[in-house]
């Protein structure tokens, strides 16, 4: 397994080089000049030239890429053309916010999917199973921004229970636990519902699969407590694909939360990329996509690792 | 792939093609039929929009703004007094045509790549799959946002971006299925009979990897509808005043408390659309997989 892990880890930089090359080409091949957008139309040629020189935009494309990747290897992602800040410090601001949002959405997904999936599997064709099916079917179909609007309408506007904005603000961080959690609730539900649907359906089917295994009958025949049988024998085995899927989905979250960040004014990675794309802020686009891709790759490797750790039968 | 089916005892065995069998199986899937009917209705409404829509979708009438649903305006009006129902019908034209074109694009780009990668293997496979890997590590929506944002917010660019996002997924699925059937006996037989790679791939392999392709294309379609709405919602897709489900929801954010019908109507239609495609996909998957075929008796007993 360690050899397999090593092989996977060696591939990571390779994939990242391809990713960075693709982002680089996409940004350079498309219309739009960051300097012109930044300085406006009325600037002197000299000012524009100076700025191009500053960000190496006057050099040939291979040179630009080589200079950039040479810095990246040393942990320097360049400077934002728009904000003139190092991309790494922008990242240090944005990444924790995005991770918190992703983690809260995943927490919601786990809190709902584990009990719902298990009970639906244990009580097949009962009302709770139908509820589970209905929830997953609806969860797959509703776009997260539509759900976000519905939740805002019900819980913020009509009931006035929960705030709409507030993630990443100073008051949120300095306040107590509830002040901290409150603004995450609606975005987490809106963002996590699709994952909840995916995970619930997966857990229900793998649980049903496990429950029909021979060792379940053996456990019952031994006279073990039903709770022991369900938790120790069934759930533990049914959790193997579940944990893997949860890890993969977590890797996905940062990339799909852009609509949620947009609605709830979250200062996260997605909205930063959105702004960078509008302003053609090449260093930010390149740096952020690289980090998001790396995050996704590691989540996938973690998923494989979990798989091997939880199931001793799996050998890579 | 054909199944020998006994017809009446007097006549000899007749060979029925697998797609005919699948087509016979499909109507037994109740949810899939519901999905199909709903989808056809939505498509018809979009296609016949000029005749069905009660109002002009871009006609501004400020005296009738933010009116709740009534007989006059079935789903109410928006902040410019435009009829929400009419906008919904016209908005479907964009969403659905984006969906269809993304499916076509993904098919044209993804299937040949997957077939080549799976059939030839070796260096071609390695190169293509590393490229696919790189594409798949980009978060799909963000990649689409970046492409559309950089190319300019235009519906053709939306289609291009979504197609580029979806094609690698399809390519990987086709590659996997191709690998599975590449060593099948009939492929060896065809090769032994002197068939060239083009003939083997097109008439023997493609036929047998069609089922996963069809199922994946339904997923591509619903993903494209949602992604188009997301892009328009973020301001990167359809531009105002053209009606668009996603764009209209974005506008509705400013009137959440005053005019909730403005965001509920597009949300509902997107959900309905995705739901019916998903049901259709489930039905197709079952119909195309002989192991999932159910007899009438099993169905009436409520098994499976």
Automatic annotation (TrEMBL), chain A:
Query: One biological-process term from Gene Ontology?
Result: transmembrane transport
Instruction: Spell out the family assignment given in the record's similarity comment.
Output: Belongs to the binding-protein-dependent transport system permease family.
Q: Provide the species name.
A: Reyranella soli
Cite the ABC transmembrane type-1 domain residue spans from the record: 95-303
PANTHER family cross-referenced by the UniProt entry: DIPEPTIDE TRANSPORT SYSTEM PERMEASE PROTEIN DPPB-RELATED (PTHR43163:SF6)
Q: Where in the cell is it found?
A: Cell membrane
InterPro entries from the xrefs? BPD_transp_1_N, MetI-like, MetI-like_sf
Q: A Pfam family name for this chain? A: BPD_transp_1
Question: What Gene3D superfamilies does the record tag this protein with?
Answer: MetI-like
One cellular component term from this protein's GO annotations in UniProt: plasma membrane
Task: Tell me the classification of the organism that encodes this protein.
Answer: Bacteria, Pseudomonadati, Pseudomonadota, Alphaproteobacteria, Hyphomicrobiales
Sequence intervals crossing the membrane: 12-31, 101-122, 134-155, 184-203, 224-248, 254-278, 290-310
| Predominant location category | membrane
Return the protein name.
Glutathione ABC transporter permease
Q: Which UniProt keywords apply?
A: Cell membrane, Membrane, Transmembrane, Transmembrane helix, Transport
Q: How does it sit in the membrane?
A: Multi-pass membrane protein
Automatic annotation (TrEMBL), chain B:
* Membrane topology term: Multi-pass membrane protein
List, alphabetically, the Gene3D superfamilies matched: MetI-like
The primary site where this protein sits is: membrane
Q: Which GO terms describe its biological process?
A: transmembrane transport
**In what residue span(s) does the ABC transmembrane type-1 domain sit?**
92-281
Q: What CDD domains does UniProt report for this protein, alphabetically?
A: TM_PBP2
Q: By its UniProt entry, which InterPro entries does this protein fall under? A: BP-dependent_transpt_permease (IPR050366), MetI-like (IPR000515), MetI-like_sf (IPR035906), OppC_N (IPR025966)
**GO cellular component: a single term:** plasma membrane
- Indicate where this protein resides in the cell: Cell membrane
Per UniProt, the keywords (alphabetical) are: Cell membrane, Membrane, Transmembrane, Transmembrane helix, Transport
Show the stretches that span the lipid bilayer.
31-53, 96-119, 131-152, 213-239, 259-281
Spell out the family assignment given in the record's similarity comment.
Belongs to the binding-protein-dependent transport system permease family.
Identify the PANTHER family for this entry.
OLIGOPEPTIDE TRANSPORT SYSTEM PERMEASE PROTEIN APPC, PEPTIDE ABC TRANSPORTER PERMEASE PROTEIN
The protein's name in its UniProt record: Glutathione ABC transporter permease GsiD
